[in-house]
Every structure is written in structure tokens, then in C-alpha cells.
Amino acid sequence: MRLKEGRRKCPLPSKKERNFSRISAVRMALIIGAYNGPMKVQMRRYTLKEGARGAFEKVFLETIVPLRQALGFEVLGAYWLSEREFLWFVAHEDFERAEQAYYQHPERQKVNPREFLEAMETRFVERLL
After folding, report:
1. Which residue range(s) make up the domain with 105?
2. Up-side HSE of residue 85: CA atoms within 13 Å toward CB?
3. Where are the alpha helices (DSSP H) in the chain?
4. What is the DSSP letter of 49?
5. Backbone phi, then psi, for 111, in 5-degree steps?
6. In this structure, what CATH number is given to the domain that contains residue 59?
7. 48 is a domain residue
8. Is the whole-model pTM more than 0.85?
9. pLDDT score of 10 more than 70
């Protein structure tokens, strides 16, 4: 595949895509594949309770993401898979230490996003390409 000079093979997500637009699994894989850091990457998949999408999205965008970023995390992408299925990827060089600081932070203790969740799956992922 020929690329014009200055264009990336795996483009980073646009602002619209970062704000929960629906994208294909292939595009999501390309976005995650564009990440080249030595950081540990965690996949987080949630099934939300019926009717909780709006409240969860508000807490996620206004508290979770800004706080994670302030503590040095990189949010690599966040996606709605369906009305109640949410998937996001977060990375940090020293994930365990940063995760502990995140959960102990006073701003994080003011919110409880788990109240919106029916199920949660987290796992560290290993980059293939």
C-alpha cells in the first residue's frame, strides 16, 4: 500500500471516534496497533445495567478519563459495542502503582462507576503487530 508522504499507515482516531463513535472492529484493531509504547495495556469491557448508559458516559468522560490522564495513563480508545456493551483500552508504564494511586485519589472516591455495571472484564493485552 502506497502512502502519501507524511501520512500514517495506522491513523490515530479522530476526535469524533474518541468520543464514542461506532467503528468497526478492524478499525479498532488498527488504532490499538498504532500504539508503540513500552506501556502495559489493559482492556476493560463492561456490560452496563439497563438504562445506565447516559449516567455512565457522564462519569466516564468527566471524571474517569481526566483523572486517569492526570495520573499518567493513556486512554487508547473507548467504544460502544452496543447500547449496553462498552470497551476501552488504557495504558501506563507502571500500571499497578498508577492503578493504586488512581483508586486512592479523592476525586475517584467521589464517584462509583460500578453502580452502573452489570458485569466487568479486565485483562492485560499483548501487542502482536
Report:
1. 38-125
2. 4
3. 15-18, 25-33, 53-59, 65-70, 95-104, 106-109
4. P
5. -125, 155
6. 3.30.70.100
7. yes
8. no
9. no
- How many beta carbons lie within 10 A of that of residue 4, not counting itself? 5
Positive or negative, the Cα torsion across 42, 47, 53, 55?
Answer: negative
Task: Return mean pLDDT, the chain.
Answer: 82
Into how many domains does the chain fold? Answer: 1
What single letter denotes the amino acid at residue 25? A
| Structure letter (DSSP) for residue 116 | G
* Cell numbers standing for residue 35: 500504539
The answer to whether residue 32 sits within a structural domain is no
Q: What residue has cell string 462509583?
A: 112
* Three cell numbers, residue 40: 502495559
Instruction: Show the cell assigned to 103.
Output: 483508586
Strand, helix or coil for residue 122:
strand
> CB-side exposure of 15: number of CA atoms within 13 Å?
0
